UniProtKB/TrEMBL annotation:
Organism of provenance: Thiobacillus sedimenti
Keyword annotations of the record: Cell cycle, Cell division, Cell outer membrane, Lipoprotein, Membrane, Palmitate, Signal
Protein name: Peptidoglycan-associated lipoprotein
Keyword rRNA-binding carried by entry: no
Chain ranges of the OmpA-like domain: 63-180
Length: 180
């Protein structure tokens, strides 16, 4: 009996592993992009396009280098806390983003170069952060979504002692609370 049963079970197992030929598997496209294409071997595939894997990685516009939201620093002239007009498009983009996402908060971090006393630099850094906060408030961002703080000269972006290094350090940085 074992001589008949064993070959029958082996034949049954091998037939179960075989292909059916012509059966098509489907892959759902959740990217919202291009429609699925059908291959000859019976499998359907989708291309990875703008809405595919790359699109998911870039779904946050703040991480898109081409977006104005990727820019996070407002630079100031020496001993000034006037927001220059050149930063208005960037601040409008951040304001629009914050208005569309009321659950998000930002910290506006005012910074100065190393010249001046510690107390003076803390006050100037606060004025720079407040100037950016007021600009964004005028653009419609809720005061509850923003906090202005000063680091004075404590967080230099450039440790050099040249005018170019000082210019990099005279800034207010926009820091989103969900990205800390």
């Amino acid at each position: 009996m074992n001589k008949i049963l064993l070959p029958a079970l082996l034949a049954l197992a091998l037939s179960a592993c075989g292909t059916t030929g012509g059966t098509k598997a489907t892959v759902e496209d959740h990217s919202g992009g291009a429609a699925a294409t059908t291959g000859q071997a019976g499998a359907e595939t989708t291309g990875v396009g703008a809405g595919g894997v790359a699109g998911n990685a870039m779904s946050d516009p703040r991480k898109d280098p081409a977006s104005p939201l990727a820019k996070r620093s407002v630079y100031f002239d020496f001993d000034s806390y006037v927001v220059k007009n050149e930063y208005r498009p960037m601040l409008e983009a951040h304001a629009g983003f914050l208005k569309s996402k009321p659950e998000l908060h930002v910290t506006l971090q005012g910074n100065t170069d190393e010249r001046g006393s510690r107390e003076y630099n803390l006050a100037l850094g606060q004025k720079r952060a407040e100037a950016v906060r007021k600009t964004m408030s005028v653009l419609g961002v809720s005061d509850g979504q923003m906090e202005a703080v000063s680091f004075g000269e404590e967080k230099p972006r450039n440790d050099g002692h040249t005018e170019a290094a000082y210019a990099e350090n005279r800034r207010t940085d926009i820091v989103y609370s969900d990205e800390k």
